[in-house]
Amino acid sequence: MTAQTPSSLSSAAWEQRYQEGTPRWDLGQPAPAFQSLLTAADAPQPGRAIALGAGRGHDAIFFAQQGFEVTAVDFAPSPIQSLREQSQAQQLSLNLLQKDIFDLTPDLAGQFDYAIEHTCFCAIDPSLRPDYVALVADLLVPKGELLAVFFTHQRSGGPPFGTAPAEVRQLFEPYFDIVTLEPVANSVPSRHGEEHFGRLRRR
Fold first, then answer.
1. Residues in a beta bridge with 155
2. What is 49-202's CATH number, 3.40.50.150, 3.30.2290.10, 3.40.50.300, 3.10.450.50?
3. Which of 6, 46, 139, 200 could form a disulfide with 176 if both were Cys (CB 3.0 to 4.6 A apart)?
């Protein structure tokens, strides 16, 4: 499945954002919701995970540190290069792909126990969200999980394009059981009240 992307959301446009400075969606650290998840007593067991729209890879690196076998994907070359340097410095083995996420299937269909979502869903054009949901479902094994931090702001424009819990449920429930979808209690101050953590299980 290949989705047509508007020029403002093309690979070159994203690369330009990285070249112009630190992107505003880059926290410089793993998402606090993921840190809480993987250090909890009932943390998901390590497995094969794909980080979609991984950016500079703070989340991907963190999952790899916790024993997950991580494939990280991004559209632009700069973040993939940054991820390569970070993983080598920490002697972590990650599979890095500079690719449009919508070109991942059919080659990688059914290859992952987990999909990691932080700032990809909010970065794509909202018209592509049904395609994104179908993609994630295709990438996961049955009972595989999407571990997601959704940007639930209500500001106009984007990226990042906001969403709402009701929209997340409507989009994902045809393919997924919603295990949890709740406000993030420990967001960084600039995102307080604007994030939901979701754990969604593929049917």
1. none
2. 3.40.50.150
3. 200
